[in-house]
Amino acid sequence: MTEPLSTSLSVAVLLPCYNEETTIAGVVAGFREALPGARIVVFDNNSTDLTALRARSAGAQVVRVPHQGKGNVVRRMFADIDADIYVMADGDGTYAPEDAPLLINTLMTEHADMAVGTRRGVGDDAGRAGHAFGNRLFNALYHRLFGRDFTDIFSGYRAFTRRYVKSFPAVSAGFEIETEMSVHASMLKLPVVEIALDYGRRPEGSASKLSTYGDGLRILWMFAMLMKETQPIRFFGAISAVCLIASLVLMAPVLAEYFATGLVPRMPTWVLSMALMMMSMLFAIAGLVLDSVARGRAEQKRMVYLSYPPLRSETVKLRTGGATKPRAA
């Protein structure tokens, strides 16, 4: 299927885990077979079962992360692990380790900084119907707000270059971390690529950690915060427009009555309309000022990104069987 990496570049496989004792050993073994020279690190996020023991017995290095949440785990593993190529996957067995060489090969041949394994068949399981609907909804919202670089912003199967990993701020705490990864790439116009990969089912006895409504609300909040941070003129401009429209709606009948009678009997309504008008102006000014700040922050992130050398694709030789043609984002 594949042949080992023939390169001096280092590869790290990073597996964030929480209570995955039934699957983690098989996942580690699969990555050891697919990428024999890779360093495999399992980040145990306060598991109460035998996840850490199973992972260590399978040959992985285990690091404990006390702060709960996938975002906290990603922040820790990106900060602590040094490698030239990073592969991130879940420990639940839904992503096939044998696809890792293809993911890396796509990253290299497309000269990208992030390769995303989009989940083929994510909605086939009836138990995932709600998650599949939310996935489509949030992807459509992402396209509207941040661009069409991605078709599956929630995929947990990704490969990165060192320059991406070390320039990614990682401020999210939970499952919204994948959204932040995607926005980081979109805002800096980083080269990314997607490739469709099969998405498996959890084995019996393994429970999902996702909360359809709880995680959905957190992701919506993250969308709002990322828009505020990266596109403040659109964020505050929208609030300004709402305040302006409300002000004009309240103001219109008061002005009509004033021009007709010369009186302003509804003084509280007039005061409220003027207050909304002033708020509209303040939000508009805030958007303009913060837009300059956001541009400066984007330039700083870009400079940090450029401080790391690019990965040379000619130094990596991978051969895959039955490769799926990648689709550039």
Automatic annotation (TrEMBL):
Residues 13-166 form the Glycosyltransferase 2-like domain. The keyword Transmembrane applies. Keywords: Membrane, Transferase, Transmembrane, Transmembrane helix. It comes from the Bacteria. GO terms for molecular function: transferase activity. It holds the Pfam family Glycos_transf_2. The chain crosses the membrane at residues 235-256, 268-293. The keyword Membrane applies. InterPro entries: Glyco_trans_2-like, Glycosyltransferase_2, Nucleotide-diphossugar_trans. PANTHER family: RFBJ PROTEIN, UNDECAPRENYL-PHOSPHATE 4-DEOXY-4-FORMAMIDO-L-ARABINOSE TRANSFERASE-RELATED. This is Glycosyltransferase involved in cell wall bisynthesis.
